[in-house]
Structures are given as C-alpha cells and as structure tokens.
Amino acid sequence: MIVAIDGPAASGKSTTARAIADHLGFIYLDTGAMYRTLALAALRYAAAGWSEPVVQVLQKSEVEVAYADDGEMRIFLDGEDVSEAIRQPEVGTMASRISARADIRDRMVALQRKIGQAAEPGVVVDGRDIGTVVFPDAPVKVFLTADLEERARRRQEELQQQGQEVSRAAVRKEVKARDRADRERAVAPLRQAADAVVVDTTHLNVQEQVQAIVDLVHKANGGHA
Ligand code: CDP
Q1: Domains held by the chain: number
Q2: Which domain holds residue 43?
Q3: Looking at the domain assignment, is residue 11 inside a domain?
Q4: Among the atoms of ligand 1, which is closest to the Cα of residue 10?
Q5: Which tens digits make up the pLDDT trace of 24-66?
Q6: Atom of ligand 1 nearest to the CA of 14
Q7: How far does the centroid of ligand 1 lie from the alpha carbon of residue 7, in Å?
C-alpha cells in the first residue's frame, strides 16, 4: 500500500508522514532527503573548488537509503550517513535547483519506485511529484498545504530546535522562492494530482492532520488498517 503525500515546503509533510507510518507500521520514505543529499554533494564540490563539472560529480555520487532497527530512515552519500547534514537551509535551496534536472530526477524516481514496491505492508512517501509522477496509481494521495506565514513559522521553529537562528523574514523568503521554483519548473513541477485530497494544515495540529490521513487510508482499505 502506497500513501503519497505532496505539498509545498514546510507544509508539515515529513512530520505527518513519519507519524502516519508509525501509526500504520509502514516505512517512511522522504524523497526530499534524496535531492538534498545530491545537493550536499554539489555544495561540497563548490566549496572544494574542484575542476570536474558538477554534472559529473552528481552522476557519480551514490545515494542510498537504509532503515534503522527502530524504523528510522537514514540516508547515505557515498557511504557516509548525511541524515543530519542535509537539513541546513542552503541544502534545501540547492536541492530545489538540482531537482529541476531530468537526469537527476529519473535516477531518484527509479530508486523511489524500487523502495516503494518492496515495502511491506506499506510505505508513506512524501515529496513534490509522488502522486503525479512517481506513484500515479497510489490508492491514497494527499496534497498537504498551509499558509505561507504558518509554514515560515514552522520552519523557523524547526531550525531553532536544531540550534540555527534565522529571522522569520529570511525563512519566509526562502520558502516562498523555493515554492515558486518548484511550481514553475518544466520537469515534474509541484502540483496537486487530480485525485488528491487537499488537507490544509494551517489550523490543524499534528495529531489532527495525522488522523485525517489515517482515516483516508482506512477508507481506501475498505475499513481495514
Ligand atoms: O522539507 P522541505 O519541504 O522544505 O523540502 P524537502 O521535501 O526536503 O525537498 C527539498 C527540495 O527537493 C524541494 O524544494 C524540491 O525542489 C525537491 N524535491 C523534488 O523536486 N521532488 C521531490 N519528490 C522531493 C523534493
């Protein structure tokens, strides 16, 4: 069973998806983490001033996903666990830039499908193109949204918890610019699938948004979990 969750930056996708996966005993696949991992490779490349074209660096960089005993998803770049390193704001911005490339998307989508198809009893997948491109036949599709101001507030709080002090205005600007780039790109742009259910989380707490989606999963399963 595949539960597809798409939506703009900081709409609560990862927190919600992780909680739904826990609730249902599914794995959680964070596809943004994959693009972030390649973005980290590109940023390190830029910092080191290598002469090799960045495209080649990205083609060579190996992204792997593994699940710890507690079910937590970990992500690796050429064998190094980068699950924490990819959370810096500049990595998100770079991820948005490189994820516009069709060759990179093809590789990541193939990996996402492989993980998703092998997942038993199911997987909750979040991203931008999950219901439209990666798993167009997913029985449950959700488009998670929230007001820009609320999303900026959540992202700022998340960064603060990681010890990063960033102004609300700077966070708002970054989130807005990224949404625009994700919506306007030619390849797999962020959009709502025709058969997705919109869940606006502006005035919902995590528990409420999790319950709303768990209800959809039960409905899709004909009343069974
Ligand atoms: O956590 P947040 O919503 O800020 O971002 P993310 O899900 O980690 O994704 C980072 C960037 O990767 C996005 O802005 C997208 O440009 C890109 N992405 C994508 O193109 N397709 C996906 N399935 C997931 C992420």
Answers
A1: 1
A2: 2-220
A3: yes
A4: 3
A5: 999 999 999 999 999 999 999 988 877 777 888 888 999 999 9
A6: 1
A7: 9
Q: Report how many helices (DSSP H) and strands (DSSP E) the chain contains, helices first.
A: 8, 8
Q: Ligand 1: which residues within 6 Å by Cβ? A: 9-10, 13-14, 31-32, 35-36, 92, 95-96, 99, 127-129, 178, 182
Q: Looking at residue 196, what DSSP letter applies?
A: P
Kindly state whether residue 83 falls inside one of the protein's structural domains: yes
Has residue 177 been placed in a domain?
Answer: yes
**What is the DSSP secondary structure assignment for residue 149, as one 8-state letter?**
H
C-beta of residue 37 within 8 angstroms of C-beta of residue 63: yes
What b-and-e string marks burial along 42-66, b requiring 16 or more CB atoms within 10 Å of the CB?
A: bbebeeeeeeeeeeebbeebebebe
Nearest CA to ligand 1 atom 20: 99
For residues 163 and 215, the answer to whether their CB atoms sit within 8 Å is: no
What is the SS3 assignment for 7?
Answer: coil
CATH number for 212: 3.40.50.300
* Residues comprising the chain, all counted: 225
In a domain, 225, yes or no: no
Please name the residue whose Cα sits nearest to atom 15 of ligand 1. Answer: 96
Question: If you measure from the C-alpha of residue 188 to the centroid of ligand 1, how many angstroms do you get, rounded to a whole number?
Answer: 12
CA–CA separation, 49 and 133 (whole Å)? 35
pTM score, two decimals?
0.93
Note the pLDDT tens digit of each residue in 170-184: 999 999 999 999 999
